[in-house]
Write the structure tokens for this entry.
Amino acid sequence: MTEVQESGSDRFGPDTPEAVASSALGTRLGVSLHGRRLTLADGTSVEVEAMDVAGSVIAQFVLNGGAMRSALRNKVAADLFKLVWVRQALVPDARAVLCVSPTVAAILARRGWLSAAARDLGVAVFVVLDDGAGRPVVEPLPAP
């Protein structure tokens, strides 16, 4: 087993979309999520945008709006890859979650390689929505 050192991360402020989505996702999953920096014994480090203390959930956020461009698709692909690697190398029992905006969800709701990769690699995809009263909620993205 790989030795892992863990430390907190202050990458996002308390009112950023990522922090708000992390709180909503944590509420949905029944855990408290915070950014974490994980360091392997060889000094390799990686930061995940959200992880609970027990390491049962790891999450990345892609909350961009506007037009879906290749750079945004690349971020989705990179975050999927990161989640799969972190789970495989560092926290093998973790639930990997990609939490996305409605803009990104529209792409992942189509039949395409990104949605197939998420499904086949066991990465759950949740979309951040408004509950109608101005509060964010996260819902699982239905499979295409």
In short: The longest strand covers residues 123-130. The helical segments are 17-29, 70-89, 102-108, 113-120. The beta strands are 4-8, 34-40, 45-51, 57-62, 95-100, 123-130, 136-140. The chain has one domain: 4-140.
